[in-house]
């Protein structure tokens, strides 16, 4: 079936469609008819515009939403720096820490769970490129949390859009525009600026985040594939309006701004949006619904055929960020080495494993909750054991990846590794090259009777 059978059943309703113009109201009649900002919105609500792009962005790129809420977002005390000595996810701003740009192939053991922290304090930047203050580049995070966020706190990132990939546990996310339940084998995207609170109904959580500092995610072009397949637009789910009414409790809104943490106090809940309409909203997607494309004749196609979401640079066809998955699929190619070929790539590739075993790395070193990074032009491909097995396998139709889901964050940028990712987490596998490729055997045999240059 083209969907995941989740252990925890869905409990919320959603609106369907990617980049669709949605409207939702928790109380009938809360949305004004025709006008966006009438003199007196229905029920005494305040109209507030949430802009994810410049007002003058081309229509096909423009992302704006109108919110109708009990009190506007501006009704808060000034923001103040919080935990400035310890909280900084933008290492280029630190005086004694830097991003390490190295050509080595890297692989990490599974990252540790941490039951002592909430969502906000679980974020660790592993790698990245660019600068959120210039709205350029990406950040790659690991999260591992064990506690709900404080019941009177909300969080948002002013730095970019969060693409969240859970690996363990369940995220129950209350956003300004409604609620999302996000489980392993689902992803969600929380756009820049949208406020939310994360609860953990099934205990500790762990996973990966790609923060996009520039632009927004889109579905990839399908070209000659046609109008369907890969991630279909109808399978993306946006929340329906769901609000709280609280104007007498002290709340704190936390902001990740240029990688640092700020906090503002206010006397009302930020989750008071009674109705909304527009194109700028959080959404989620079940990876089990991905319609995989592959070769039915010969050769292994480029991994771009597994792209779920993309964020293009100013050069068409070259992505600042691609989110790519490797789901269960049939391989039928004739006279073909079926795992991914050995390659060097102008793109940087950060891989993670949600569950199961990745078919191109069967030696056991690439594990769920672990990761790997193959940077610009760093050579990589199947490990020696996988190459030997695939070179001698019977080429009959075979399904690979059963019970598995690996993914890749790919970028045209040279990705640097943080001090935490390279040293402090203590998860880097020092024997990655030795285990994967140094044991490859020489198989070349000169034809009998031939000399160099003569045949």
Automatic annotation (TrEMBL):
SUPFAM superfamilies: RmlC-like cupins
Domain Homogentisate 1,2-dioxygenase C-terminal: 289-443
Name recorded for this polypeptide: homogentisate 1,2-dioxygenase
Gene3D superfamilies listed in its UniProt record: Jelly Rolls
Annotated source species: Mytilinidion resinicola
Residues annotated as catalytic: 300 (proton acceptor)
Cofactor(s) listed: Fe cation
InterPro entries: HgmA_C, HgmA_N, Homogentis_dOase, RmlC-like_jellyroll, RmlC_Cupin_sf
An annotated GO cellular component: cytoplasm
GO biological process, one term: L-phenylalanine catabolic process
Record Pfam families: HgmA_C, HgmA_N
GO MF entries: homogentisate 1,2-dioxygenase activity; metal ion binding
Keyword check for Iron: yes
Similarity field: Belongs to the homogentisate dioxygenase family.
Entry EC no(s): 1.13.11.5
Domain Homogentisate 1,2-dioxygenase N-terminal residue range list: 13-287
């Amino acid at each position: 079936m083209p969907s995941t059978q989740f252990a925890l059943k869905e409990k919320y309703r959603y609106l369907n469609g990617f980049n669709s113009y949605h409207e939702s109201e928790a109380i009938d009649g809360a949305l004004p008819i025709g006008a966006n900002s009438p003199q007196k919105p229905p029920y005494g609500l305040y109209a507030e515009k949430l802009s994810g792009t410049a007002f003058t962005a081309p229509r096909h790129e423009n992302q704006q939403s109108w919110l109708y809420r009990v009190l506007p977002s501006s009704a808060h005390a000034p923001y103040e720096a919080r935990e400035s000595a310890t909280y900084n996810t933008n290492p280029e701003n630190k005086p004694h820490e830097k991003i390490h740009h190295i050509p080595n192939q890297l692989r990490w053991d599974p990252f540790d769970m941490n039951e002592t922290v909430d969502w906000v304090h679980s974020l660790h930047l592993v790698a990245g490129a660019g600068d959120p203050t210039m709205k350029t580049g990406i950040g790659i995070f690991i999260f591992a949390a064990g506690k709900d966020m404080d019941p009177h706190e909300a969080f948002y990132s002013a730095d970019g859009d969060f693409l969240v990939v859970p690996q363990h546990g369940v995220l129950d996310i209350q956003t300004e525009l409604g609620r999302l339940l996000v489980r392993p084998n689902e992803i969600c995207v929380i756009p820049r600026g949208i406020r939310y609170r994360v609860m953990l109904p099934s205990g500790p959580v762990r996973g990966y985040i790609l923060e996009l500092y520039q632009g927004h995610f889109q579905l990839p072009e399908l070209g000659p594939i046609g109008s369907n397949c890969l991630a279909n637009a109808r399978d993306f789910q946006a929340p329906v309006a769901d609000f709280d009414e609280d104007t007498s409790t002290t709340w704190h809104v936390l902001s990740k701004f240029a990688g640092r943490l700020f906090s503002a106090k206010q006397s009302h809940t930020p989750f008071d949006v009674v109705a909304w309409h527009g194109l700028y909203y959080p959404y989620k997607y079940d990876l089990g619904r991905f319609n995989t494309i592959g070769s039915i004749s010969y050769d292994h196609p480029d991994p771009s055929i597994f792209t779920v979401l993309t964020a293009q640079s100013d050069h068409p066809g070259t992505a600042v960020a691609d989110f790519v998955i490797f789901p269960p699929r049939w391989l039928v190619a004739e006279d073909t080495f079926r795992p991914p070929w050995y390659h060097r790539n102008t793109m940087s590739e950060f891989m993670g494993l949600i569950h199961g075993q990745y078919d191109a790395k069967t030696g056991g070193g690439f594990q769920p909750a672990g990761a790997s990074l193959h940077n610009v032009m760093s050579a990589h491909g199947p490990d020696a054991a996988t190459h030997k097995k695939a070179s001698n396998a019977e080429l009959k139709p075979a399904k690979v990846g059963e019970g598995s889901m690996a993914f890749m964050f790919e970028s045209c940028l040279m990705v640097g590794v943080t001090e935490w990712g390279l040293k402090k987490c203590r998860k880097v596998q020092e024997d990655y090259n030795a285990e994967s490729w140094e044991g490859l055997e020489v198989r070349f045999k000169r034809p009998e009777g031939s000399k160099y240059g003569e045949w």
